[in-house]
Amino acid sequence: MEIGQTAATAVRLSGLRKSYPGGAAPAVDGLDLTIRRGEMVALLGRNGAGKSTTVAMMLGLLEPDEGRVELFGCPAAQAVRAGQVSAMMQEGGLVSRVTVAELIRFVRRAFPRPLPTAEILRAAGLEGLARKRVDRLSGGQAQRVRFAMALAGDPQLLVLDEPTAALDVEARRELWAALRRYAARGRTIVFSTHYLEEADANADRVVVIDRGRLVADGTSAELKQAAAGRIIGFADPGMPVSQLAMLPGVLEAETRGGRVRLRTVDADATLAALGPVRGLEVTGAGLEDAFVALTGAGR
Ligand SMILES: Nc1ncnc2c1ncn2[C@@H]1O[C@H](COP(=O)(O)OP(=O)(O)OP(=O)(O)O)[C@@H](O)[C@H]1O
């Protein structure tokens, strides 16, 4: 049997801890996380939350101080050696002078069961660029070549650390389309990001990390619901913010541009206590509201 081939669990992190020398607080502080095969999971957190450190431990590039990393039931390094796991890092030079197709053919040779070159090019949206030299590609195209290199060996698990950092909107859209095509093959994808909209649009599951700890885990709809409740907006009746904040269910109150915005866990109770208002709007809170509520970002 191939290593861990039957394991339903792709990633299991248990009690992970990591401190850097001189760091005031641990970068990762007791993280437990299980990811099933076929999931597309976003690790979401603000700068310095511990995402990259977690990803590096997941890939066996960094040794945890405490805890364990298992990929498909094996130690990380073993799964990586067996070609089950691949990573796309943020940067990294691409050799020059060769064409995209030549580079992919070269990379394929490193793996026991690589995908066919044509399939790799198709999956990464590079069909039209096969004959182009890699040192003449745009940033977005070069990033898709990195993605193609990462999937050449047909890994079961693909880990991407901020895959769309520094890409423009169009390049981002194309990379996400390529990633979704790969996920549709039943592969597991874990990506870190601090773009809320990317987590919202692409992940089956969003794991929010803050100060090295897991602070939320669910679908983005669940996180919005659990952390942020609903948003009530209406024309400012001139009531002091402190009084608005005291209304039943209200978690946050602010006035801006002649309107009041309340975040509430119980819209009915808030509205009943508020009485009639003008220009009322009630909406579900966005992932950004959930994120602020969960991490205290912006406080
Ligand atoms: N090589 C290092 N040496 C010392 N401290 C580090 C090192 N790498 C990260 N840190 C610290 O560890 C903490 C977590 O950093 P990490 O890079 O894992 O966060 P992140 O969530 O990936 O952040 P970002 O979104 O900015 O990439 C931060 O406080 C950071 O300053």
Automatic annotation (TrEMBL):
Q: Which CDD domains match?
A: ABC_DR_subfamily_A
User: Where would I find the ABC transporter domain in this sequence?
Assistant: 11-236
Q: Does the keyword Transferase apply?
A: no
Checking SMART domains in the record gives: AAA
InterPro entries in the cross-refs: AAA+_ATPase, ABC_transporter-like_ATP-bd, ABC_transporter-like_CS, ABC_transporter_ATP-binding, P-loop_NTPase
Q: Which GO terms describe its molecular function?
A: ATP binding
- Source organism superkingdom: Bacteria
Q: Which UniProt keywords apply?
A: Antibiotic resistance, ATP-binding, Nucleotide-binding, Transport
Which PROSITE patterns does the record cross-reference, listed alphabetically? Answer: ABC_TRANSPORTER_1, ABC_TRANSPORTER_2
- How does this protein lie in the membrane? Peripheral membrane protein
Compartment annotation: Cell membrane
Q: What is its main location?
A: membrane
Q: Does the keyword field hold Nucleotide-binding?
A: yes
- One Pfam annotation reads ABC_tran
PANTHER family in the cross-refs: ABC TRANSPORTER ATP-BINDING PROTEIN
The protein's name is: ABC transporter ATP-binding protein
Organism of origin: Streptomyces orinoci (Streptoverticillium orinoci)
